[in-house]
Design brief:
Length: about 425
Amino acid sequence: MVKKPKRWGRVVRKPRVYLALAVPLAIPLFLAAVRSQPEFGNATAASVAPLPLRYDALRPFRTQLPEHAMLLTMEQDDTLDSVLVDGGLSSHDSALLTREFAKSIDVRRLRPGHLLRFHYDAANRVDSVQMKVTGWGEIGALRSGDGFSVSPHPALPHSVETTVSAVIDTSLYDALRGSGENPALVQQLVDIFQWDIDFFELHRGDAFSLVVTKNYVGGDLVGYGPVTAARFTHKGTTYEAFRDATPGGGPGYYARTGTPLRKQFLKAPLKFTRITSGFSKHRFHPVLKYFRPHNGIDYGAPIGTPVMTTADGVVVEARYSPGEGNFIRVRHSSRYDTYYLHLSRFAKGLKRGTRVAQGDVIGYVGMTGLATGPHLDYRVTDGGHWLNPLNLKSITPDPLGGDALRRFRAEVARLTPKLSEPARELAEKAVQQRALF
């Protein structure tokens, strides 16, 4: 029978006791999961020379748990210091070891689920501690005299290019989660297709495939690289995008012909919102109570929602007026002006003469001036004449050419098969989805 270590500082909660008793069952399952991690080539990392320790005492997590050992997991509201105390260290030793670990890892950002293994000597004193740090590697400590010698072992980073595919049922966010991916990819898709697809109007049965690099450290997903290719079917129309980062063209996204997807104007000045009032020559004003033209599009959104300029330009007005409230006017070349009305405030440092780039945050949604609720009134003029922003025909920058186009076409040829197979399966699912509704 394994003798349990004495506890200092606080009583161990029951779930911890259950975990210790279940170690013979938990370890084989954990080891199987670790062994199932795929192998990846071409990984690079700075080599870390281990300290001259008796590292055989710090056995890797992949080996069978020794007899005089216990495995603990960090739980909600735990700190590294508190778990070390639970494992049998004195308050002095746990504080000392926490400081030593902090030289290699950010101990303040450790979250529930991290595993610590304690090994005990014949006197039932903690002889070594080993910790598996998600997204980083392992770190070990071996008792040495009155203190501990610490040996960090960061894992090798590796990357995998993979295809992600899904059919939308409720939302783009849920579709990505349902495919087993992090919804962080939502913003990449929105940024890629924002000039062609209105993401406020996605339909059930819309489908997408994308090729992206997933970055791992020690088997843990730590993030995504940029999407290198994407295909999005929206209301029966398929859009494609391929990333180019060559000196002659990118970085940016292009159709397979080499034509940029980026247009002079974004489709909307807000990321996520809804249209509450459209462009009209004869609209009943909710405040003034009479009919008059509404020369813009109203986007309903909470106060404080960031507002972006829809094209590169220069701020020519940023002030308050009784009707428009806080408003901004941006001039784009010598032809177009865009207006952003009823703002709660302007972006820090923004003033007349400020140069802005497409997508820059210039202000925040409010309800200043003649407004009955929080919204953005977005307007566009062409040579002084009001245009319906939804019908604005954008100017496309020059396409790729020469060597840049040849390199781009080679990359398109490589990536297209990665999109095609999932796309056929998704098309069948999309047809089935539409047939149900």
